[in-house]
Input
Amino acid sequence: GVAALFRVTKYHGIRGTYFINMSGEEEVEDEIGHLQLDHSITIDRKALLLPLLEEGNEFANHGYWHWVFDDVEQNVRNIQQCSRYLFEVFGIHDEGFASPGGTWNYELARAIDRTGMTYSSNITLDNGGFPYHPVYDGKRARALEIPCNPISDVAFDPHPQPEDLQRLQAYYLSYVDQQIRTHEPITILGHPHLSGRSADTFYSPIFEKIQQRGIPVMTYHDFAHWWLQREASSLSVQVDGHHIVLGAVGASSLVEIIYTSDRKIIPVDEKTVL
Output
């Protein structure tokens, strides 16, 4: 599944984020249960995974164990153990975390902040949406939460049939149009052992549509850092006689100007006069 997905994403120039479950428990949890493996299966997959990094994909944290605990300390250990292996095996410092099964609770939110993650992506909203900072203990989380669209191939686990993937593909094609209309991020969640095995027929039409529409494609890391830069910037607007004076604070910005039927996007720096 990984190999097939890699070929298709490379052909279409798609870079993505691979959330790595370092123990490999996700592969066998239906057969042996949780917290049972005595060694990391994922280490045995190193040769298969390395080409993904070489093509500019991101590896991020999916927990050492494929499990979300009800205790903050256990969640911290689970995230840190995965981080340690990601560095030792692949030489990377991970910045993001996606919870096993998309599960989220306050103990996990505390753990994500304590482990210094820049972002996390969990199934916290019904249909994805804009990034935000969760609130726990009366304070805003430091880590950015990038909601993920929960509609995915996992609904057909363990053996999606061709007709299942056809319906899911049709959903994603309409979802891309929907997100463009509402100016919201597009997140496509897939698993190599499910939709990845049919990557050519399943993903190619979706990736072709994204290319045709000129939609920028980026990893979670790149999107998170772009959004955090966006958060740090602000726009001031003043009227000076017959002129509008725009000012960007923190970083240069783009603004869309709509006047009668004319629409255009212009860059704004410290002082832009219209």
Observations:
- The longest helix spans residues 162-182.
- DSSP finds eight helices and twelve strands in the chain.
- The radius of gyration is 21 Å.
